[in-house]
Amino acid sequence: MNMMEIIFDNGTIWVEDSESVEKLKNDYFGEERSGKIFLTPEEALYLIKFRNGFIKNMCFTDLLSFFAKNDPKIFIKYNAYRDWRDRGLIIRRFSKVVKGKHEKKTYKEYPVKKLKLENLDLKAVWYPDSLFSLVEEGGKELFEKYWFGQYGIYKQTRGRILKLDFMETIFLSKWFGMKVFENGKQIKWENILKNVVKKREYAKQLYEVYEDWRLKGYVVKTGFKFGSHFRIYFPGASPKKGKSEDDEWVHSKHVLHVFPKEQKMLISEWARAIRVAHGVKKTFILGIPELKKEDYIDIPVDFLAYRRKKTQTGWVRETPKDKPRYLLAAFSEDDHIGGIELASLLEKAKSMGLSLILSITDRETAITYYVLKKIILPDSDYEYYEIEWIKP
């Protein structure tokens, strides 16, 4: 293959010999102006590394270092670009004037069956240091019919005490009149929540999400074993086995992780929770409570990405002549992302008719992709998203 000379002049990069211009144009590199192809830094880096491109008196790391002065994430962006291109797909720098390819359904609507529960004539004893309460009388029906708490021993028939976590305790006291006592004195649910907030980080946000799903008929249990805050059962689920002891125990199909808008989460921890969920064949849901319109910010994004489409002759790659499918944001496993940043990226993707993909580069330069789709939970004030691992 012939060498391709790339010209660099104080941050501007282009190719001008006619043969190279034609090749790059046909493979959708750069932007053509005045008979030249002007390149982005990641395009030039890719051509140097994999397409016999060269810049006189300048190597790959020289070019990378030049742009890293103002863009510390340039290698992460390059690596995302490189991986997409290596798959034979087109990827271009973000442009807000480009409109995306609207899917037939850009969101998933979840069913709702509002919880109906009579006023409870129950007494619970609250243990503030351990953040749970116990019900000695009447707890069995509450557990078996509505699946609140744990009656007896988990997945066993032994024991006659119902244990409720702090969210279940607050919820049943607030909405269904369960009386809660501490040291012989009745306490209000508001005071329980205030005390829990002092001890448990983001307890208020966790409770708000718990309450949101519970009132809509969902069963919400701990997701500790799956690296998430909750596991979710659709309306109608029950803890009881079938007609015989040999019937399979009911299993959840979804886990939910609460991501407060002001929290910053390490990408590697966030991705680990998604992987655990997918490893046990569960859908991973991310909840971002308390978002308001004024919270959204304009975040710079990286790429517009194309995939393949099916034609009469088979699958062919999409090009800039088609509408892009994805807004792609590139991260490394050591980056942090906040709830507001993530929600803002999703809102930008939605406004452009695109799905959001997060490209995560690990320390060995392998890349994992996650696509995010919004969930509509009717009458909810919060933002929820399904997150799926994909292979382009």
Explain what the structure shows.
Helix content is 28%, strand content 29%. It is built from 10 helices and 27 strands. The protein has helices at residues 18-26, 41-50, 60-68, 74-86, 139-146, 166-176, 189-199, 203-215, 267-279, 339-351, and strands spanning 4-5, 7-9, 12-15, 31-33, 36-39, 53-54, 91-93, 107-109, 123-127, 132-135, 150-151, 162-165, 179-182, 185-187, 219-222, 230-233, 254-258, 264-266, 283-288, 303-305, 308-311, 314-317, 326-332, 336-338, 355-361, 367-376, 383-390. The strands form 6 sheets. Strands 7, 8, 15, 16, 17, 19, 20, 23, 25, 26 and 27 form an 11-stranded mixed beta sheet that branches. It has a 6-stranded mixed beta sheet with strand order 11-12-10-9-13-14. A hairpin with a 5-residue loop joins strand 25 (355-361) and strand 26 (367-376). The longest helix is centred in the first third of the chain and has 13 residues, at 74-86. The protein is elongated. The protein starts with a strand and ends with a strand.
